[in-house]
Amino acid sequence: MLACRAVNAATLALLVLASYVLAYRFYSGFLARRVFALEADEPVPSRELADGVDYVPTRLGLLWGHHYTSIAGAAPIVGPALAVIWGWLPALLWVLIGTIAMGAVHDFAALVISLRHRGRSVGDIAGDVISPGAKRLFLIVVAFLIWIVLAVFAFIIATLFVSYPAAIFPINVQIVVAIALGWLVYRRGVPVLLPSLVGFALLLTAVFYGQAFVDAFPALRDVSVGAWVWVLMIYSFAASVLPVWLLLQPRDYLNSHQLLLGLGAMIGGLMLLAPPIAAPAFNPNPEGAPPLLPFLFITIACGAISGFHGLVASGTTSKQVACMTDARPIGYGGMLGEGTLGLLAVLATTAGFATADQWHAHYASWSAASGLAPKLEAFVHGAATFVSQLGVARATAETFVAVMVIAFAATSLDTGARILRLILSELGESAGIEVLRNRYVAAGVGIGAALLLALTQAGGKGGLLLWPLFGTTNQILAALTLTVVSVWLRRAGRPYLYTLVPMVLVLVATVLAMLGEVRGHVASANWLLAGSASLILALSLWVVVDGVRMLRRPVAGARPPAPDAG
After folding, report:
1. Using CA atoms, how far apart are residues 235 and 462, in angstroms rounded to an integer?
2. Residue 300: how many other CB atoms lie within 10 Å
3. Which residue from 244, 409, 514, 537 has the fewest beta carbons nearer than 10 Å?
4. Which residues make Cβ contacts (< 8 Å) with residue 360, sequence separation at least 6?
5. Peptide bond preceding 57: is omega within 30 degrees of 0, i.e. cis?
6. Where are the domains of the chain?
């Protein structure tokens, strides 16, 4: 165990944030010009296919907030909150390097390829770029991942409602305010900034009255996790079929205010406190933990690179981009924002502990630290420690952080529900099942399946049965997305090594991790997980092999990437 108690968390934060600024200024600019050749006057799907439901041209600031909060769910918190068990240094390096060289490139690329294919998902585009078989296999992997995400995120939010009932009131106030904001902006033509700031002020006020609301309605303390799962799934159905401008966009925009304020408060408190990091820099053999390599790369997914982000970029965001050059700040810049959240999660769960003994007590073993509650508690405790340095009462700081975490998870929940509805429609079109092209039917099938998965165990936690597969499935999905983009770039005569190299690295690490997981599931006779993991691995490798075969074909008549003709 290597201890570096003299390392100051504030100094580390400044170094990482400066690296993000430089990466956006130089590397993302290079990608936009030389790799993707973005032009401001290119046609975009939101204008060509505008329907007022999914395809809605949206100003940059509003869409950035929607995209950012959709990808910044609970995963970039719970992943680093567990990965620090191997020490803060490996976790921090993966968040830094993964975000700049892999995750932001992945998100940017997924958004651009979708914009140039009529706003279709990357899985659907795989049929054009690789093969029709690759398309079907890709979409099956996507549907499986989002199915798990919906079930587990509903359980996470429900668990937080039970643990922090004071968060119930502000979360519901946010929904009402979001609908009012959407109506004002899109139906009354009111500029978004002022009403969004008023709505955000109402939300902050609601945070201070959250506990009073629970005291006035004490029955809320007795609502079970399973009951909250039902409520959240019903909400998800509504969010997935309503016009995107009425709930998702304005709610996520409000969430972006909250998220930026929360990140700013945590960073400000961290700078004032300037604590030494209580955790060891390197802790190679924690009790009961799998090996650091390759499992670090699947434990921290959304804080470094995540296949789910490609689904958001190509599933919902691409249908709302109003100008092609907006893809750079939304795709690359949005992932840098998530990397900032991953950075603060690492620091909150290491420097947020007052002493090394406290940290070691919390991270005594893998089994003690890997549960959902220990990970969330470590983050809420550390983040509230930072925020309280600004003069905020400790209890209020904890409520604010809890509301922020729930808001993160909720935006991923309703965006995931919408993506699943769109993916099922694409699968229905591919298989000739016309009924799935109806958005209400597709949403009902997707939400119903997620609800059944969630309720397969008491307390609404059935999704946790398959949650061990999330990390590897999510990362192999990122590799598949980068495979499709790399083939597309090569066929178009554009530089493709900037997406191919991250694809190879993510694929190798994920396949090794998945093989290790399969061996572990077989050894423990967990045939459900062993069989599911083996099937996902086989389907994914099939797509990759098809992609590699396309990469090896000679390129004839290469031309710059252009919008899909239909």
Report:
1. 19
2. 31
3. 537
4. none
5. no
6. 9-461
Residues 378 and 381: their CA atoms lie apart, in Å, by 5
Integer angstrom CA distances of residue 462 from 212, 252, 415, 457: 33, 27, 21, 5
3-state secondary structure at position 302: coil
**Dist. CA 27–CA 22, nearest whole Å:** 8
Whether 566 shows a pLDDT value over 60: the answer reads: no
SS3 73: coil
- Residue range 469-480: mean pLDDT, rounded: 90
What is the per-residue pLDDT across 538-562, written as a single tens digit (0 to 9) for each? 988 898 898 888 888 876 554 444 5
Structure tokens at 50: 């505008």
Average pLDDT over residues 493-521: 93
- Proportion of the chain above pLDDT 70, given as a percent: 96
User: Please, which contacts does 501-504 make with residues 24 or more away whose CB atoms are closer than 8 Å?
Assistant: 502/101, 502/102, 502/105, 502/106, 502/305, 503/479
Is the confidence at residue 115, as pLDDT, over 90? Answer: yes
Backbone angles phi, psi at 58, to 5 degrees: -135, 135
Query: DSSP string spanning 383-413?
Result: HHHHHGGGT--HHHHHHHHHHHHHHHHHHHH
Residue 42 has pLDDT above 80, yes or no: yes
Single pTM value for the model: 0.88
| Amino acid of residue 211 | Q
Measure the CA–CA gap between 146 and 450, rounded to whole angstroms.
9
- Beta bridge partners, 282, equal 2
Q: Is the pLDDT of residue 480 over 50?
A: yes
Per the CB < 8 A criterion, the answer to whether 337 and 303 are in contact is no
CA distances from 451 to 140, 358, 519 (A): 18, 38, 29
The alpha helices in 349-393, defined as continuous H runs, are 356-362, 366-369, 372-387
> Cβ–Cβ contacts within 10 Å for residue 357, how many?
10
The residue written with tokens 């420097």 in the block is 351
**Cα gap 496→279, rounded to integer Å:** 40
Per-residue tokens: 525: 């006779």
pLDDT for 236-251, tens place per residue? Answer: 999 899 998 888 888 8
Beta bridge partners of 8: 276
Task: State how far the Cα of 401 lies from the Cα of 263, in Å rounded to an integer.
Answer: 10
Residues in the chain: 566
- pLDDT tens-digit map of 310-367: 999 998 999 999 999 999 999 999 999 999 999 999 999 999 888 888 999 999 999 8
Only one residue has tokens 């007022």, namely 52
**How many angstroms separate the Cα of 415 from the Cα of each of 71, 232, 242?**
9, 13, 12
| Rounded Cα gap, residues 387 and 401, in angstroms | 9
| Tens of pLDDT, residues 378-393 | 898 899 999 999 988 8
Q: Does the pLDDT at position 3 exceed 50?
A: no
Instruction: Kindly list the distances between the CA atom of residue 22 and the CA atoms of 29, 98, 457, 499, in Å, as whole numbers in the listed order.
Output: 10, 15, 47, 20
Amino acid at residue number 328 = R
Q: Is the pLDDT of residue 4 over 80?
A: no
CA dist 366 and 287 (Å) reads 6
> Which residues, 6 or more positions from 165, have their beta carbon under 8 angstroms from its beta carbon?
210, 214, 220, 221
Does pLDDT of 565 surpass 70? no
Please count the other Cβ atoms lying within 10 Å of the Cβ belonging to residue 437.
13
